[in-house]
């Protein structure tokens, strides 16, 4: 039995996959198995992996007969693993030289179920270069140890949480195999990592975040459409898959495989908030402004209106605060940035007020919605964007949203 199993889901990637595998086989640690699961590629990916396996007996080539998605490919690979520890590496990425030796040395000194290490972001295009700094910060863990129930409670918290990617983590083998065995074999989109992190966290006894550990080379923008504009159809799929992930999380928490704990509702609410936050950030950052009003249709098909409103109020909060802090807002010719902050705050306020016509804010049990709404209105009043006594919704503008918000919504 090897000390370490590394699972790589692969699909239509003859270009970067050999580079990924070579970054692992070149490591000083040799007591390992590399399990590559080809998810029914239509190119020569499987043949490429077979060739590499013939040259190195540590490589195992597995293949799905039909395309099932990343979650299923990882599930197949983890089930086939036999290592004391298991890592999941994406097909476009690499491990830095010496990464495995340092990880296993850390495991000897700090027994844990989850080892969280850092990344080095390599940008593949100009858009990725602009995002690389923020991505590095997001993926670099805060050095700390967590135990028991605190792991799940912390990961998805709004403040002090940590990213839910399953790459750049090493797991205790039996824990991760048990987690994937408990998961539904289904297709998600970007939220399969969140779903699996939720399950692993609930089963883990100890989490250890390693300081100064940029050992995972994350190729941002390689092999994907990073930087391209989002479409309404793409947002619709993304929001629906995120909502599906929440349903799966709820189903797991209610299952016999989940441990008993008194804070399931809090943990699930945190996951809901992170998923809605993700869908709405995609809406705000990647959907062209001219399509945003229509794009809300895609989000509210999958999420309840108070959850969507909570994110709109988050944007209002930030824009109103930026305007409040602007030193030139009283000038005859304020800067373009100051003008944009004012316009953005009022535009999102109009959208939020329209959404609020289909539910009673006083009856909403969504704490995030109420918290964001309260602070947003406080900033709006302080900035002089609304009357000092105003707390009602902003005046109506035409956004074509009346009918869609009368639809029946689900996923809270």
From TrEMBL:
It comes from the Bacteria. Its EC number is 2.4.1.293. InterPro entries: Glyco_trans_2-like, Nucleotide-diphossugar_trans. GO terms for molecular function: hexosyltransferase activity. The keyword Glycosyltransferase applies. This is Glycosyl transferase family protein. It holds the Pfam family Glycos_transf_2. Residues 5-128 form the Glycosyltransferase 2-like domain. It comes from Bifidobacterium subtile. Keywords: Glycosyltransferase, Transferase. PANTHER family: GLYCOSYLTRANSFERASE, UDP-GLCNAC:BETAGAL BETA-1,3-N-ACETYLGLUCOSAMINYLTRANSFERASE-LIKE PROTEIN 1.
């Amino acid at each position: 039995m090897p000390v370490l199993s590394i699972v790589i889901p692969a699909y239509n990637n003859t270009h970067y996959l050999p580079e990924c595998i070579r970054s692992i086989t070149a490591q000083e640690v040799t007591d390992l198995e590399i399990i590559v699961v080809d998810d029914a590629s239509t190119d020569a990916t499987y043949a490429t992996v077979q060739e590499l396996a013939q040259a190195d007996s540590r490589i195992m080539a597995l293949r799905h007969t039909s395309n099932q998605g990343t979650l299923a490919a990882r599930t197949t690979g983890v089930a086939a693993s036999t290592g004391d520890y298991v890592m999941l590496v994406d097909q476009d990425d690499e491990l830095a030289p010496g990464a495995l030796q340092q990880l296993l040395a850390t495991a000897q000194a700090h027994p844990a179920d989850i080892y969280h290490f850092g990344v080095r972001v390599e940008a593949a295009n100009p858009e990725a270069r602009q995002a690389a700094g923020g991505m590095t910060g997001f993926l670099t863990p805060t050095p700390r140890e967590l135990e028991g129930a605190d792991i799940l409670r912390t990961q998805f918290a709004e403040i002090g949480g940590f990213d839910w990617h399953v790459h750049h983590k090493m797991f205790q083998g039996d824990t991760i195999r048990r987690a994937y065995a408990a998961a539904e074999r289904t297709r998600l989109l970007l939220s399969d990592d969140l779903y699996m992190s939720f399950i692993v966290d609930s089963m883990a006894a100890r989490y250890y975040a390693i300081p100064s550990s940029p050992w995972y080379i994350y190729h941002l923008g390689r092999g994907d459409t990073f930087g391209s504009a989002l479409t309404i159809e793409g947002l619709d799929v993304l929001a629906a898959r995120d909502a599906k992930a929440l349903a799966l999380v709820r189903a797991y928490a209610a299952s016999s495989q989940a441990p008993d704990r008194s804070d399931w509702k809090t943990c699930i609410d945190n996951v809901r908030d992170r998923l809605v936050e993700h869908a709405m950030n995609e809406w705000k950052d990647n959907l062209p402004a001219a399509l945003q009003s229509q794009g809300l249709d895609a989000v509210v098909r999958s999420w309840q209106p108070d959850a969507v409103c909570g994110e709109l109020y988050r944007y209002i909060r930030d824009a109103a605060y930026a305007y409040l802090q602007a030193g030139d807002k009283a000038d005859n010719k304020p800067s373009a940035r100051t003008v944009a902050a004012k316009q953005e705050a009022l535009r999102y306020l109009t959208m939020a007020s329209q959404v609020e016509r289909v539910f009673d804010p006083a009856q909403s049990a969504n704490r995030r919605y109420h918290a964001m709404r309260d602070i947003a209105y406080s900033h709006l009043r302080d900035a002089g964007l609304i009357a000092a006594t105003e707390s009602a919704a902003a005046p109506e503008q035409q956004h074509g949203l009346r009918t869609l918000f009368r639809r029946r919504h689900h996923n809270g």
